[in-house]
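Researcher: Quick test of sequence recovery. Tokens follow.
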């Protein structure tokens, strides 16, 4: 006698059949899920989970499907742009967004998001205005320049300047200043895209005034000085100061552009940092135009500034590229607020996060490291040794490349030598998987958490509570 026939669902699920999509959606626990993510998204996720269960021969209950859907929907809804604890020791970390904005800049950007603003409207005349007017006066005040404009980053500033003033012309650049910036973008390539022709002068380590003069007399149309903000050439070297190059250029009716790269509006040495040339000094030295960044040493949002002679700025603003490279209202609001902080240099370090972090005292950083080390030790367990160490931070983003800043942090080492590399890799991955990822750096067979940029110690400790011991390795 043959056995009785059974349905496919009974064969796959035993005593319990798969719930229908409608049954899951009617479950009481599904109601808040629909309220948060919407019926369409929840239905799609539930349908997919039921299909997966059917293929696997499983039979979750309606409540179990809701729980699985909740986890997947929450994961999909989590922001891809996540806040992190930057304990790498690099303050202006390009991969982590560079400068943290001042509270005044954040408030200004939020206000611009919430309401209409007079972005390109002249309130006095009741006519269309120019968005550059929001910050033009501030830039001129802080740099001593006749006029100013801005675009979305310093590479864009260089592109529009060269395209406006040197398209089809030769541009003189010292061979030792042919920089490459992040992402393998090279100055010669930007010049090519701008329609300019590179005229190299001097050698990698030595360039003299006569090199500029010879190229000028051969008919070059622009002189470009590039501040080596992301490298240093040391030893047997010679370079021509911008003031001397400017005089040689002006004697022959040629424009000199000084690209400061990172750029700063303040004398950093008064805050205990290595000195960098300021924008005002470059303008005073005779540069016709000066270009610099907004999100590096200046401590604001991403932007590229061009300051200098009024007639040249007017030509740049007539270039069709200006519209393609312009900044939006959010960044303009944040830039204006950031620039205003420079009017009060005595309180700048208290108000500007970049300067505050760069000028933080090593002994204060060490004290922070000592406060968080015990909690790290407890969370990591006996498989790791936790030690407070001295270390060196760096500015980052190509600024002050050879000038390290004394700092302190926590060095974490695997107790067992065998498999230590894998253990540290597992720990680094576990820290990156925390609700607010923690990023350190590998050094001397240890994972070092440099505490220079750690200001929210309480938040850091709370964040560690999600560190599962089994996720950290041995």
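Model:
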């Amino acid at each position: 006698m043959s056995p009785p026939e059974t349905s496919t669902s009974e064969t796959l699920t035993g005593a319990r059949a798969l719930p229908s999509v409608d049954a899951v959606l009617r479950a009481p626990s599904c109601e808040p899920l629909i309220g948060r993510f919407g019926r369409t998204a929840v239905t799609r996720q539930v349908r997919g989970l039921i299909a997966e269960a059917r293929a696997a021969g499983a039979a979750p209950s309606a409540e179990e499907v809701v729980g699985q859907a909740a986890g997947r929907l929450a994961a999909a809804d989590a922001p891809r742009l996540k806040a992190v604890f930057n304990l790498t020791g690099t303050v202006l970390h390009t991969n982590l967004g560079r400068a943290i904005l001042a509270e005044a800049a954040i408030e200004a950007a939020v206000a611009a998001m919430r309401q209409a603003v007079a972005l390109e409207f002249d309130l006095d005349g009741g006519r269309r205005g120019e968005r550059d007017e929001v910050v033009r006066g501030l830039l001129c005040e802080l740099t001593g320049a006749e006029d100013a404009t801005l675009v979305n980053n310093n590479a864009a500033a260089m592109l529009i300047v060269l395209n406006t003033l040197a398209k089809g012309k030769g541009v003189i650049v010292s061979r030792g200043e042919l920089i490459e910036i992040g992402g393998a973008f090279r100055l010669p390539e930007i010049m090519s895209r701008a329609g300019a022709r590179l005229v190299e002068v001097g050698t990698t380590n030595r360039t003299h005034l006569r090199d500029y003069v010879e190229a000028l007399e051969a008919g070059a149309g622009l002189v470009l000085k590039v501040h080596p903000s992301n490298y240093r050439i040391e030893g047997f070297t010679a370079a021509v100061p911008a003031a001397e190059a400017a005089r040689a250029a002006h004697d022959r009716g040629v424009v000199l552009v000084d690209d400061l790269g990172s750029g700063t509006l303040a004398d950093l040495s008064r805050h205990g940092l290595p000195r960098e040339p300021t924008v005002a000094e470059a303008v005073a030295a005779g540069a016709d135009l000066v270009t610099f960044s907004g999100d590096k040493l200046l401590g604001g949002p991403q932007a590229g500034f061009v300051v200098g002679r009024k007639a040249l700025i007017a030509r740049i603003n007539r270039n069709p590229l200006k519209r393609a490279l312009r900044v939006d209202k959010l960044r303009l609001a944040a830039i204006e607020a950031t620039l205003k902080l420079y009017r009060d240099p005595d309180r700048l370090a208290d108000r500007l996060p970049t300067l505050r972090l760069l000028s933080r005292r090593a002994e204060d950083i060490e004290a922070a490291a000592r406060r968080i080390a015990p909690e790290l030790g407890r969370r990591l367990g006996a498989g790791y040794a936790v030690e407070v160490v001295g270390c060196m931070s760096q500015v980052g983003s190509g600024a002050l490349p050879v000038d390290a800043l004394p700092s302190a942090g926590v060095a974490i080492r695997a107790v067992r030598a065998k498999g230590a590399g894998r253990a540290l890799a597992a720990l680094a991955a576990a820290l990156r998987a925390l609700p607010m990822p923690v990023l350190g750096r590998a050094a001397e067979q240890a994972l070092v958490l440099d505490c220079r940029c750690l200001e929210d110690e309480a938040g850091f400790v709370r964040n560690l509570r999600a560190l599962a011991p089994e996720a950290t390795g041995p």
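The chain is about 40% helix and 20% strand.
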